[in-house]
Amino acid sequence: MKITDDSPPVLTALDRPNSYIGRSVPRPNLQRLTQGRGLYVSDVTLPRMAHVAYVRSPHAHARIVNIVTEAAKKTPGVIAAVIGAELAKVMTPWVGVLTHLKGLKSAPQAPLAVERACWQGEAVCAVVARTRAEAEDACELVEVRYEELPAVTDPEIALDAKTPVIHASLGDNLCFERKLDVGAVDKAFAESDAVVEATFRFGRHTGVTTEPRAVVADWNEGEQRMTVYHGTQAPHMMQNLFAKHLGIAEHQVRVLTKDVGGSFGIKVHTYADEMATVALSKLLKRPVKFVADRIESFVTDIHARDHRIKAKIGVSKDGTITAFEIDDLTGIGPYSVYPRTSGIEANQIVNLVGGPYNCPNYRAQARVVFQNKNVMCQYRAVGHPIAVAVTEGLVDLAAAKIGMDPLELRRRNLIPDDAYPTQSASGLKFELLSHHEALAHLDSMMNYAGLRAEQQKLRGKGVYRGIGFASFIEVTNPSAAFYGVGGARITAMDGATVKLDAQGAIIVHTGVTEQGQGAEAVVAQCVASSFGVRVEKVRVITGDTDNTPYGGGTWASRAAGIGGEAAWQAGKALRANVLAVAASILQAKPDDLDIRNGLVVDKDKGTERLPLDELARIAYFRPDTLPPGFQAELMATRHYVPRAWPFAFTNGIQGSYLEVDIETGFVKLLKHWCVEDCGTIINPQLVDEQIRGGVVQGIGAALFEHCLYDERGQLLNGNMADYLVPMAVEMPDIECGHVVSPTADSELGAKGAGEAGTAGAPGSVMNAINDALRPLGAQPLTDMPFTPDKILRALGKV
Amino acid sequence: MNDRTLDISLTVNGARVQDRVEARKTLVDFLREDLALTGSHVGCEHGVCGACTVRVNGEIVRGCLMLAVQCDGAAVETIEGLSDSGEVSDLQAAFEQRNALQCGYCTPGMITAAQDLLRRSKKVPSRDEIREHLSGNYCRCTGYHAIVDAVEAVAQARAGARK
Predict the structure, then answer these.
(1) CA-CA distance, A34 to B108, in Å (whole number)?
(2) Nearest CA in chain A to B149
(3) Do A554 and A516 share a structural domain?
(4) Cα A170 versus chain centre, distance
């Protein structure tokens, strides 16, 4: 780690007297949230603000014959009722494609449907009124005449010649296709001692952020500026998109992101109703607010994970994995989501399957098809939960087939810890991973041998417990290879501006954003450490495109690794500037001084020379006393973007211990473990809490969460009572462990940790359920979520 | 007053409130929109998620399942009141220290529900009892483990203080 360079020889940078790297300091912004004094977009009110409600298509696919808004317009409180053709004059449509996903195609999407509605829930008319209630009342009076069109819902037949084509201009229903064939797959299968095949299915589910999507758009006709209060993960990306589609310059748009009530990847996309709200503000020249209600959220927040994967693994008697093969089919709704596209999930699955293992033979096919359901796009851990469950499911089935312990089979195939740098069969480049150390750590942490003995004993008493594992890799710290090279104006870079205020405190503006994961704390810790003040002296400002450095925001587990490094570097730069001031005041050499705990000190002895508040007083108010020609620079900006590696891969392994009630099919989770390696850990508590929260979202996918559609494209359970998410009582305690393999691409060495939990949990729970039921001769369960009825069916009980 | 609106009189966080409200208005909308008490959050509006949990006459209720007009004559307490009185300051401190919140949207409801458990419990509740009691409050960020830790720590501290 280069970090040691700027510290005395004996000490690492982590041991700097004022270092907060590796310490669990509480987040600086929590008190306002525990007291209910946060400011979420749904709390924002502005003078002259109106509210919009949307009339949404009840059909999965329908031609809009006409829309009559007269009655709605006459309703008390109504300001406007606007249809797609009118809004199209204010805002241009968009197409969700990226050039590096070769061949990916999609159709233009408008803020309000113009001629056709392509999924149940697509907005077709906007009603703006003084209050949301009045707007909703008037929506009831909008008359829309539809001509229902055949709905394409089943991905399996989306490409059949007989199936209607959703967008005639595209020629067929294929959005994107990718094929990969590495090594000698057929030969490897032919020479294997055992080949196991299975079809894995993943239920479409969604993020269910507790605060629904929310936006307040405020076009100021006098300033010719659009201010958007937006619960988003990527303010600069949205600034670009609002400007582009309104036909104005980016500097005419300010995006403000205050507190955000959960994101998980849901709030990093372009939503037609949010774009429409922005366009309505421009049209009506006043602030307009839209907050999705929960029913709207279920039919419009992006869905994810709807994949059917036929998969195959070859293995020899000694446990060597010889080949992997997958055929992935996924339906992504009627449009590829803008601007990140809906091809990334399938692309990631092709990239990630088999990733932890030393296996040179791999064949994959993925087809992404259009259908008349709500759109799918990137949700926390994009593609990982699927790739991991398929890989790890196959590994467990192979282990069972050859009669080998599943942990032992992993041990024999995981890429050795001394093999780095290396790459996967699919071409992923790994700088430094620690699969074996992580596995060994998990083995002892969970007392694997003890659990196996307990499991055996209880089986005799008719109690069926299972143990499941999932090794995983996670994409973090993406470089421009993720989106920039494909033509999207989504920066991989992030910046931090650090200034010394007039009392010696530090103000940081950062391009990354806070949705609760603790980015503000991590940025404050990095600056406090590299500059040299107590963390309480650092105030972090995020989420304002007028004031923060240009940045990507928070997604793909990038805030700590990229935003943290920029903050670290900015803190160092300001330290150098401040030491130049100190040296001129003290008539010393800057190199002989340091800043520790808010004091300028002698570097060698640590003796106090000058408090920062006194230095600031002189620099700001008595610059006349400084030497002629010397100018104090008390503000510094640094940016960082990963360059050496396309992604900083992390790794880890999860373990699940659970009990299946074979009479009811209910699963009781007893304990969950995760050992992960995110490189340098800036704040251990925040890393653990990211893991735990991620694990529970993965458990939700494994056991509960499913957007159930009928064959006509109607969502059947789009409310919180029928769509189940994990509750406290159903969840186990989750124990976390760590291995630390820093990336050498940054001084800090931090990689991301936001998605590891979600990546591995579904696969490990699946394997544990199958492990529990194996002695009963149950068919392996590979169709998530594993609801009680599916378990009873596998047991032949229903 | 017409048949769409009614006059109500109640106390909110100890302060007397008289207002004319639409009969259809929920308690949480009244608190947020009419009184600007935005600490109570709206998550589902159908009584499942618990983000709007407030206290009415000493009982926790879902602010989205109760109408404002039903609170005529009632004493309503929200997170703002519970914070200012100091009643939940130990829970708040524990949540902050343990990072038992991430986005914070469920937190006011979660703390209100946790306080309900703790003031009714004669002994320190088990982790399972804490999980059971908080199951009407959804958190999508934390996975609940840290919340259970924080509530358990406060329960133990309060029991210790009583000895």
Answers:
(1) 6
(2) A733
(3) yes
(4) 30
Burial class (CB in 10 A: 0-12, 13-18, 19+), A624: exposed
Q: Which of A640, A670, A692 is the last residue of a domain?
A: A640
pLDDT digits (tens, 9 = 90+) for A281-315: 999 999 999 999 999 999 999 999 999 999 999 99
Does residue A488 contact residue A97 with C-beta atoms inside 8 Å? no
pLDDT at A66: 97
Query: What does pLDDT average to over chain A?
Result: 96
Measured between beta carbons, which residues in chain A are less than 8 angstroms from residue B148? 728, 733
The CATH number of whichever domain residue B107 belongs to comes to 1.10.150.120
CB of A178 within 8 A of CB of A365? Answer: yes
Reported as type and span, the H/E element at residue A663 is none
Residues B78 and B16 in one domain: yes
Peptide linkage before A9 cis (omega within 30 of 0): no
- Which of B82, B98, B117 is at the close of a domain? B82
When scoring B92, B102, B126, B131 by the number of chain A Cβ atoms within 10 A, the one with the most, hence best to mutate, is: B102
Residue in the block written with tokens 């002698």: A602
Domain boundary among B67, B82, B97: B82
Put simply, the chain B residues between 39 and 78 with a CB less than 8 A from any chain A CB are: 39-49, 51, 78
Range(s) of the domain holding residue B140: 88-162
ipTM of the assembly? 0.98
Name the minimum distance, in Å, from the CA of A593 to any CA of chain B: 35
- The number of distinct structural domains making up chain A is 3
Say what the pTM is.
0.97
**pLDDT for A634 beyond 70:** yes
Smallest Cβ distance to B111: which of A34, A721, A757?
A: A34
CATH code for position A545: 3.30.365.10
